[in-house]
Amino acid sequence: MSILLPHGMNAPAFDKALADFRRAIGDQWVLSGEEDRQTYIDPYAMGDGLDHDCSAILAPSSVEEVQAIIRIANQHKTPLWPVSRGKNLGYGASSPKEKGDLILDLSRMNRILDVNEKQASCLIEPGVGYFDLFRHLRQNAPSLWISVPGNSWGSVIGNALDRGIGYTPYGDHCETLCGLEVVMPDGSLLRTGMGAMAGAKGWQSYKYGYGPGWDQMFMQSNLGVVVKAGLWLQPEPEMTAKITLALPRFDDAEWALDILCDLRRRDIIQHNIVFGSPVRAASTMSQRADWYDGPGALPDSVSEKMMAKLGLGWWNAKISLFGDEGSVMAQVALIRRLFEPRLGSALQFEIWKRGDPLEKSATGIPTTMGLQSVNWYGGRGGHLSFAPVLPQDGAMALAYAKKIKAYYEEVGQDYYASFTIGRRHINNVSLILYNRDEPEAIARVDKLYRHLLKEAAASGFGEYRGHISYMDEVAATYDFADGALARLNNRVKSALDPNNIIAPGRNGIGSRAHGGDRP
Description:
Elements: H1 11-25, E1 30-31, H2 34-39, E2 57-58, H3 63-76, E3 80-83, E4 102-105, E5 112-116, E6 121-124, H4 130-140, E7 144-145, H5 156-161, H6 173-176, E8 177-183, E9 189-191, E10 225-232, E11 234-235, E12 239-247, H7 252-265, E13 273-276, H8 278-282, H9 300-310, E14 315-323, H10 325-343, E15 350-353, E16 381-386, E17 388-391, H11 394-411, E18 416-421, E19 425-435, H12 439-459, E20 462-463, H13 471-476, H14 480-496
Parallel strand pairs: 2-4, 3-4
Antiparallel strand pairs: 1-2, 5-6, 6-10, 7-11, 8-9, 8-10, 12-14, 12-15, 13-14, 13-18, 16-19, 17-19, 17-20, 18-19
Helix pairs in contact: 1-3, 7-11, 11-12
């Protein structure tokens, strides 16, 4: 791995910038050696990952050090790529979108600053992970529960800012944020919501403050560096009930989605519902070679054998219910009435009551089990996600799933899909698994992703979250009024970050590929 310079910098200028960074945060926290840089390469990169290599890593421990770094970066025109813990796996992990940017690693800022058990909220730094917060609450505030994503290795704040999700009533993670502290692109400090008042008592109680609410400006953006965030937590319920529904036929998706979406809209089911294909479940507990080692995509006949052995359906929906005993048991009875006649068998819910072992409950318990899926093809595995947003319409979702499944099979890729049902939308998560050391697999992944993006846009479905290799392409699909949203984003970027210091090109904003050095 050779020396890599940031965009627009020569070696003497870069050396001077690194010297200034070292004076600001300490020599040991400016990492520019080859071994250091290698540890930050995306572990799931399609190939060697060097197309997203960084030039150095900066690891501050305080808000003041972040401010100092950003001021120095402006002085030297040194681009920074902030990461909370660098575990945004499947989307690029720690790697910057634009090659040569310095990674601003906030993982040393890992304090849980406050937990208010009565108000069910906390204040944390970006380096706090789900395991950290879960353990802290079990020891200090056990009446509070958290929501976790399928892979819980990452940052609580980072996941929320990228609009990640979990599977409890608090599973829309961006909506649980309440009050941000942000270092702006000029190094100044801002608090949103009630935090804009010095000494405010309700910073984690009310999101909006006075006048415009700016929290959304810092989600999936590059307009500042979030260094603290308030988070709402779930008070422990009296009872939960959970079940996985196994739907035997592919076409069952239409009627089942319509029922589940209606229950979600009416808040009878209060969480994001996962509704997934057989490979989704099988890939966490087995490998493809256990079932099939032939060419092309996994045949339906093999999927059916896999389903029979593992007790799966063509679609497998996980449902949880939360509340007092009366409401939970009434919801259990309703779901039984809706599904048992169609499935032809009795449903068995797992019931948890307060005081029972927590593992039986439907709380969010951090896990990395979902990462097992990357081993599906063997070798050094990886995954890439494409998840467009659809309206809540079962017939539309089924027709789209059939079309996408057919294309997976055409290119020789095993079909891994799930529908995630939100309050008014469905995300069709098309996961693409691969062995990153097989060139033909990487070519297939790229072809498939680009086709999915084009197909979804043509159908009127927008991708909600982008991998670093495709951020510009995803942003370009938001093309109403000849790209009015992109123009607005770039105007704001130019006003706040005229040197394009913070995460150039993140989600297509300030991308050098489309506008030189200026956003």
